[in-house]
Amino acid sequence: GAGVSQTPSNKVTEKGKYVELRCDPISGHTALYWYRQSLGQGPEFLIYFQGTGAADDSGLPNDRFFAVRPEGSVSTLKIQRTERGDSAVYLCASSPSGHGSYNEQFFGPGTRLTVL
Amino acid sequence: AQTVTQSQPEMSVQEAETVTLSCTYDTSESDYYLFWYKQPPSRQMILVIRQEAYKQQNATENRFSVNFQKAAKSFSLKISDSQLGDAAMYFCAYRSGHTGTASKLTFGTGTRLQVTL
Question: From the DSSP assignment, how many helices (H) and strands (E) are in chain A?
Answer without folding.
Answer: 0, 11
